[in-house]
């Protein structure tokens, strides 16, 4: 049984995982206790000392500890199936970083496993807590019928060595960048992507794609273009919706929200940006206690991975791929 203050263990406390640890220790001490971390890289012992928590070199020992109520996994996605399977065996709720995996069938195995055991699985698709994404969702309904859209996330070339290693990364920008766009578009529009036709290129990454563009067809006949890359020393994450009553534009990185009518561009009210992990962790805490719904169910993470998987198939075959055929 989980007490009011949930004792969590974090697997992977590198650059991103340390953000979870920082929020739990500094902001959420009233509802979480950081019981343990698992990290094998240099500095792990010093980090555990700074966080005043236990260090496990083997993540299995962390998951199996009687002192750990729930697990947060922030590792490379190729480990996710193994970690999720062991968490299910130990009957531990799991909050897992996106992508759920880089293979649709493995992702489905994870979701099915947690469903069969009636265990709590949450996927950290944190763009759903971004103020621009939330505002786009709120404003789109009043814009009338949606005809077409475009979404881009263009980032700098990666400096993480593992993202260039297929056996560790499991995929390029389709799974590590476009997955954000696919989930955000499903969240904003309430529509499903049903068919894709995609192309990809290797610009700086010789083994995994770092430039990707796809035509996408949504339920209801909405047309779209999705563009993701890690090739330019700049970043943008822009969404454009062409609607019956005008256009709605937003940039999640630069904090832009605009409506276009005729040749007039008007800025729309937008809440101040804030951390996205913090509200997710609060919602996760409520969910684990039965005081709220699952903030981002495993099935939502699976849906995004399914679209990525279809895009990878389309790149390989140079054909339209029906997402529902997977």
Structure description:
The mean pLDDT is 96. The longest helix is centred in the last third of the chain and has 20 residues, at 298-317. The chain has ten helices and 15 strands. Helix 4 packs parallel to helix 5 (104-116) and helix 5 runs antiparallel to helix 10. The protein is of the alpha/beta class. The two termini are 38 Å apart. The relative contact order is 0.15.
What characteristics describe this protein?
alpha/beta; 326 residues; six-stranded parallel sheet
What's this entry about, in short?
With 326 residues, this protein is an alpha/beta fold. It contains ten helices and 15 strands. The model has no long low-confidence stretch (mean pLDDT 96).
Instruction: Tell me the distance between the termini.
Output: 38 Å
- Mean pLDDT, to the nearest integer, reads 96
Strand order, sheet with most strands: 14-13-12-11-7-10-9-8-15
Strand content: 25-35%
Number of strands: 15
* N-to-C order of helices and strands: EHEHEHEHEHEHEHHEEEEEEEHHE
Per DSSP, the total helix count is: 10
Rg over alpha carbons: 20 Å
Largest beta-sheet details: 9 strands, mixed
The percentage helix is: 25-40%
Q: Which regions are unreliable across 5 or more consecutive residues at pLDDT < 50?
A: none
Q: Decide which structural class fits the backbone.
A: alpha/beta
Molecular shape: globular
